[in-house]
Amino acid sequence: MFKKLKWIIYTKPFVIFIYYFIRIYSLTFSLGVKNEEKWMRILKQGRPVVICGWHQQFFAAINHFGSYRHLKPALMISQSRDGELIAGVAKRSGWETARGSSSSGGRQALEEMIDHLRRYGLGAHILDGPRGPMGKVKPGAIKMARESGGILVPFFASSDSAWFFNSWDRFMLPKPLSRVTLEFGTPIVFPEPKTPLEFEEQRLFLEQIMTPRLKRAGAE
User: Fold this and answer.
1) Which DSSP category does 188 fall into?
2) CA distance 141 to 125
């Protein structure tokens, strides 16, 4: 029975169901968006933008990020079965997907993302996904932004009332009728590092910006 249920989860009808469930569920939020205009102006000026956030917080943003479909955005997603489900939802939301992660297919997916950024300008990256560890910034987003000539934009989602799953990332699901805030941070430009140490300093710098907004204890 469990195997049959698991098979159903990865079918096209289930992906469609999840997509519409997310859209309808997200309409119950009282949504606020902060500091979106700054990076949009930069994008309009012709410079690529990479939005980066935590795996924990991406659910709250899915519906709003669908409003970027006209910008032809792209997202890097793992090649796992769970990634297949996420990729299906992303595509229906108007996002292209590059399939790969640090554990499998990452180099090719990274190259696809860089090419996409150079051509269309907008991408997003989950900094600690798909398997963590929680709060550990992986280098992909920095490489994407630097090699495409773009900027990194930190992204945070919060809710005044949410459930936190007992998962590696303490996954956050805002409760119906909650106040949800999507906030974009100050754009960051990373120069080409001259040494591996300089690159590690860049990674730690981004981690220090992102970590304070991570909900480690599952409390707002």
Assistant:
1) B
2) 6
Q: What angle do CA 158, 204, 52 make, to 5 degrees?
A: 40
**146/102 Cα distance (integer angstroms):** 18
Kindly state whether residue 38 falls inside one of the protein's structural domains.
yes
Q: What are the residues whose beta carbons fall under 8 Å from the beta carbon of 20, sequence distance 6 or more?
A: none
220 within some domain = no
User: How many distinct structural domains can be found in the chain?
Assistant: 1
Number of Cα atoms under 13 Å in the Cβ half of residue 85: 15
What CATH number has the domain bearing residue 170?
3.40.1130.10
Sheet holding 96-99, edge to edge: 30-34, 179-184, 151-159, 49-53, 122-126, 74-77, 96-99
Distance of CA 116 to the CA centre of its chain: 16
Distance CA 51, CA 185 (A): 10
218 within a domain of the structure (yes/no): no
| Residue 219 placed within a domain | no
The boundaries of the domain holding residue 20 are: 2-213
Tell me the per-residue pLDDT of 146-202, one tens digit each, with 9 for 90 and over: 999 999 999 999 999 999 999 999 999 999 999 999 999 999 999 999 899 999 999
- Give per-residue burial for 137-173: e unless 16+ CB within 10 Å, then b: bbebbbbbbbbbebbbbbbbbbbeebebeeeebbbbe
Work out whether the CA dihedral 105, 106, 112, 113 comes out positive or negative: positive
